[in-house]
Specification:
The structure holds two protein chains of two kinds. By secondary structure, chain A is mainly beta. Helix content of chain A is 5%, strand content 23%. In chain A, a hairpin with an 8-residue loop joins strand 8 (155-160) and strand 9. By secondary structure, chain B is mostly beta strands. The two termini of chain B are 17 Å apart. The mean pLDDT of chain B is 93. The chains are: A mainly beta, B mainly beta. The complex binds fe (ii) ion. Fe (ii) ion (FE2) is lined by residues 152, 155, 157 of chain A.
Chain lengths: 240, 178
């Protein structure tokens, strides 16, 4: 039997009904969610490894013949669960706009140049300390049509799996001091200022590489097992 | 909630979720993502719709299911709904899981305009174990049909309605708080 997850702390997530982000209007459920306690399927993590998701590539600046334009950066951090346990071997997927704020996707109509040397897709597995590390360029901010003069602050999209399907997280990492924060309803959908701050990376001298790249640190915390309730019920081998 | 082992737990506040956004299509879908089991004899497909009944062409649907012996973990699929709001998976019918649930597929739906993904499930029509399924038992009678696939000539169809229509919204898919 899979281990139940902590149910506390999820108030950090945005409300799905957030009118300032207009696309939520017709895409959030209006009826109450049905509580699901201890479901085996959702408390199990998919075995992903490196197989089904394709090649692992943590250097987004080395995927083409030339070097992409923009500020080269290192983005690194630890993936851990809500109990502080580092999560090793976790698949981390990232995607982002290029330095000009343009995605390498045909549907992106923003009038900013594509970069033939930058796709903006990366994957890696966390090491034994739960650490991930990407080399990339700092994405540019980009406009969208949510409201007049709507610009998204620069961000990198992150996808994580954790130790259960119910621990899955898709989110965005922001850069410190961006003046667009107060005007961005996606970021402001996280209404607790402290929780919002947890989506902002910190400039990090340790991650910075002399003469080569500035470094940013961003730790990610996923839902973890509910040890406070179930420790005594677990079999000796830890269950699961 | 019991706190007897609280001292062993170094509490860490969670990282908040954000929408997958509109432009994940060049990044997350992968060849074979919709093929949960190569040469599987079951096709599961459907359309994701919004509260106006319009197809949602920028959703990402992920599936986790048990194998025919009821073991969960190895069978995972991912399918974008571009360009017409439709998804389709090739797989096999799962066995019943050890928690007493009838055979089912667990679904995650991500989309632009969805700030935190949604959990739902697909159950099988004409499955006698559905009557004893502890999850279906918690779902109001008049909404249970939103979790049960409909046979058609392409396989089994499960349409996902992110938001119901009208005052009652009774056609809204049942989503779970896991
Ligand atoms: Fe984005």
């Amino acid at each position: 039997m899979a281990e139940p997850l902590r149910r506390d702390g999820r108030g950090a997530h945005p409300d799905r009904d957030f009118p300032a982000y207009r696309s939520t209007a017709l895409r959030h459920p209006k009826l109450p969610l049905v509580p699901l306690h201890d479901p085996e399927t959702e408390l199990t993590a998919p075995f992903l490894g490196t197989g089904p998701i394709g090649p692992i590539d943590a250097d987004l600046t080395a995927q083409h013949d030339g070097t992409p334009l923009g500020e080269r950066i290192v983005v690194t951090g630890q993936v851990r669960d809500g109990n502080g346990t580092p999560l090793a071997g976790q698949l981390v997927e990232v995607w982002q706009a290029n330095a000009s704020g343009r995605y390498a996707q045909a549907e992106d109509a923003h009038d900013a140049p594509l970069d033939p040397n930058f796709t903006g897709v990366g994957r890696c597995l966390t090491d034994e300390h739960g650490t991930y590390r990407f080399t990339t360029v700092k994405p540019g901010p980009y406009p969208w049509r949510n409201h007049d003069k709507a610009w998204r602050p620069a961000h990198i999209h992150f996808s994580l799996f954790g130790t259960a399907f119910a621990a899955r997280l898709i989110t965005q990492m922001y850069f410190p001091g961006d003046p667009l924060f107060p005007y961005d309803p996606v970021m402001q959908s996280v209404t607790d200022p402290a929780a919002r701050e947890r989506m902002v990376a910190a400039f990090d001298l340790d991650a910075t590489v002399d003469q080569w790249a500035t470094g940013y640190r961003w730790d990610i915390v996923l839902r973890g097992p509910d040890r406070t309730v179930f420790e005594h019920d677990l079999p000796g081998d830890g269950g699961a | 909630m019991a706190e007897r082992n609280a001292e062993e737990v170094r509490e860490q506040p969670l990282t908040p979720a954000q929408t997958i956004g509109p432009f994940y299509g060049f990044a997350l879908p992968y060849p074979g993502g919709p093929v949960i089991v190569p040469d599987g004899d079951l096709r599961v497909h459907g359309t994701v719709r919004d509260g106006a009944g319009e197809a949602v062409p920028d959703a990402l649907v992920e599936v986790l299911q048990a194998d025919p012996h009821g073991r969960v973990g190895g069978l995972f699929g991912r399918c974008s709904t571009a360009p017409a709001g439709r998804f389709a998976f090739t797989t096999v019918r799962p066995g019943a899981t050890g928690d007493g649930c009838a055979p089912h597929l667990a679904f995650l739906v991500h989309a632009r305009g969805l700030l935190l993904h949604l959990h739902t499930r697909m159950y099988f029509p004409d499955e006698p174990l559905n009557a004893y399924d502890p999850v279906l038992a918690k779902v109001p009678n008049d909404r249970r049909h939103t979790l049960i696939a409909v046979p058609d000539r392409d396989g089994l169809r499960l349409d996902i309605r992110l938001q119901g229509s009208g005052e009652t919204g009774g056609d809204e898919t049942v989503f779970f708080d896991v």
